[in-house]
Write a structure and sequence with these properties.
By secondary structure, the protein is of the alpha+beta class. The protein contains five helices and ten strands. The chain has a single domain, classed as S-adenosylmethionine decarboxylase (4-Layer Sandwich), CATH 3.60.90. A hairpin with a 5-residue loop joins strand 7 and strand 8.
């Protein structure tokens, strides 16, 4: 590991750092018509224009220049945005790879980035029988140079209704110092969780699976508080019988646990 403030590199920092996120929002839509309304709502709230703005904010947080934007709304549902970004001049005093939370909103941060990109894809879908609908967002923030895309983590989590989040952070390649010695990572990291704000850590149950020797870090997050009224699309709890509410809650929790643990589970 190197500290770029004290080690002189031979040429450009060639380390590639990628943050990959899958964010899931779960809801219950009773009728087929409500399912259509939910998907239409998601497509409207998270259309290509809105996603472009979110990714534009991310580029500001990590200090990048936008080179090109490609975006697309899909029929019947979903959207994608890809932004190519380039480097900014390096001001060493402003750079930080320390294990601390990034901002919850965009702010000015100068970074060294090149041959980098940010992408987002949305996947609304619904269960054909039990009324459960799931909205998934996949995001990749890939950078080359001295700053970690983990600085955008808090902002991205707070930009969506995140019930379940799976996170992967990987540092690839190597860079050399002026003596020719290879360096395979340029900052300390024990857990992705250390880059989350305190309120985020309190809201979620989290599990880490890390492979330190390969510079691979993985975290899974599951929302702790469960207010059923927040998951009923088009209706409230007063519109259902207690028995029906109990069945809906079981179905919602089963969906969330299956996504969090990555396997199908028996009925609860």
């Amino acid at each position: 590991m190197i500290d770029n403030s004290s080690v002189k590199l031979h040429g450009f920092n060639n380390l590639s750092k990628t943050l990959s996120m899958s964010i899931f929002d779960i809801c219950y839509a009773k009728t087929r018509e409500q399912v259509k309304e939910y998907i239409a709502y998601i497509d409207e709230v998270y259309d290509a224009d809105r996603l472009t703005q979110i990714l534009t904010d991310v580029t500001e947080i990590i200090g990048a220049n936008i080179l090109n934007v490609a975006r697309q709304d899909y029929d019947p549902q979903g959207a994608s945005v890809t932004i190519l970004i380039s480097e900014e001049p390096v001001v060493a005093e402003t750079l930080s790879n320390t294990e601390e939370p990034g901002p919850l909103s965009k702010e000015s941060v100068v970074a060294h980035l090149d041959k980098s990109h940010i992408t987002v894809h949305t996947y609304p879908e619904s269960h054909p029988e039990n009324g459960i609908s799931t909205f998934r967002v996949d995001i990749d923030v890939s950078t080359c140079g001295r700053i970690s895309p983990l600085k955008a983590l808090n902002y991205l989590i707070h930009s969506f209704d995140s019930d379940i989040v799976t996170l992967d952070y990987r540092v690839r390649g190597f860079t050399r110092d002026v003596h020719g010695k290879k360096h395979f990572i340029d900052h300390k990291i024990n857990s992705i969780q250390n880059y989350m704000s305190e309120d985020t850590r309190e809201r979620y149950q989290m599990i880490d699976v890390n492979v330190f020797q390969e510079n691979i870090f993985h975290t899974k997050m599951l929302i702790k508080d469960f207010d059923l009224d927040n998951y009923l699309f088009g209706h409230g709890v007063d519109d259902y019988s207690p028995e029906m509410l109990a069945n809906i809650e079981k179905a919602l929790r089963k969906e969330m646990y299956e996504i969090f643990y990555g396997r199908n589970m028996p009925d609860m």
